[in-house]
Backbone:
DNA sequence: CCATCTTTGTGCACGCGTTCACAAAGACAT
DNA sequence: ATGTCTTTGTGAACGCGTGCACAAAGATGG
């Protein structure tokens, strides 16, 4: 029986082995002392806990460049997601195949949702249409929404929304890029600009966005 | 002079006002007691600290659906980013306009980077090409990379990489979706499956991914 | 069957971020 | 000027996650 110890896994993942064991303990206790974890069973347990063993039908609304990119994205199928339908408001798009699947018109949104038992919707429309699409998805029974449109969606209680802002990641990179340049320049320029002293920075977070400010202007 | 108090901002952002003041204090101290913060100056200070006042030329490599979507994305310009060039390995793409800008061939990658002083690169290629593109970007002087390809890139010390996995957000939604369904079903099914008891969950994090496990299978 | 060795599961302590609470500071009215 | 009122800036306490360290558990060999 192939097994792994928490020590091996921790080393591979770059985390503390005690934390890893503690996390696993939340899933129940099924490691064997003196041996480790049964790999196959472990994978199954985690997969089940994460919902990877289920089939999640999703709809993608707004088949522009981004919507098409998402439809073609291979990573979904391997994680238990199935693109049930592609929906767009443009009548010219209707019937046109994208990622081997015909685009359907927004008029049929409610029907598509209910017939496929869809509970997760992806919004890749322009900002202006997002809230309206969101409202219709929710009304039709969708309870989780992944929003790529640059708008904050308002939804009723019980509906989860996650917003993906493609520029935020760039923002974070630029922030660090600036600091790289800043440290060299600070000496050379003899502090031409009044820069606040280096922050405490002795926080515990190890991630690359360790000390990004939490608030930024619109 | 238009001003805002930390209390107003905190309420609007949904955070604690003391934390907000403490964060601002790291940028230096420029609020006025009894009045609040000068809005215009505050915006400028934060913008400068985040690098929004600078112009960041970026290149996008891999002009498929996703690359095109990024090139057309409006949010970049308003955050100080300027798409300096679109690069693709397909000779058939060369010269073809995307987002009002001609696609250039990978052969000229190094020249484009150096001539435009690019320090941030976006990789939107298939997984197979990502590492190779990454190596060339780094060799040409890029020190920050935003990776949309489903691969872990290895880079030398001093280069920042951020990976965006479009399916991870879906994963998180599905995880919560499962728990929603689980809580109803748990009663009905009389615990047909051995499910661990509800976690402590009394952690400080308020975000929707409050208690996602940190480790997941490939 | 006992001794030893490995690895899990977890109580406990440490450290860091968050929040509270208040003194200091400035505005504004009298 | 002086007092009052508002809001900042920050020291101190709290709470939570993380990591240490070890007892318990099971495997393995003699």
Residues:
């Amino acid at each position: 029986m192939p097994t792994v110890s928490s020590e091996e896994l921790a080393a591979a993942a770059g985390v503390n082995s005690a934390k890893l064991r503690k996390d696993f303990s939340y899933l129940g206790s099924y490691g064997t002392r003196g041996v480790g974890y049964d790999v196959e069973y472990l994978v199954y347990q985690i997969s089940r806990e994460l919902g990877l063993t289920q089939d999640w039908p999703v709809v993608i609304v707004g088949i522009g460049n981004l919507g098409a990119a998402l439809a073609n994205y291979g990573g979904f199928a391997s994680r238990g997601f199935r693109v049930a339908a592609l929906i767009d408001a443009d009548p010219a798009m209707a019937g046109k195949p994208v990622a081997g699947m015909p685009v359907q018109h927004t008029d049929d949104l409610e029907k598509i949702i209910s017939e496929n038992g869809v509970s997760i919707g992806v919004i890749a429309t322009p900002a202006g249409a997002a809230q309206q699409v969101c409202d219709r998805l929710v009304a039709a029974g969708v309870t989780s929404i992944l929003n790529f449109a640059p708008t904050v969606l308002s939804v009723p209680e019980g509906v989860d929304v996650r917003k993906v802002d493609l520029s935020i990641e760039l923002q974070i990179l630029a922030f660090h890029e600036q600091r790289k340049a800043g440290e060299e320049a600070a000496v050379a320029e003899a502090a031409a600009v009044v820069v606040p002293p280096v922050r405490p920075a002795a926080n515990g977070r190890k991630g690359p966005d360790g000390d990004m400010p939490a608030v930024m202007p619109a």
Q: What stands out?
A: The first strand of chain B starts at residue 3 and ends at 4.
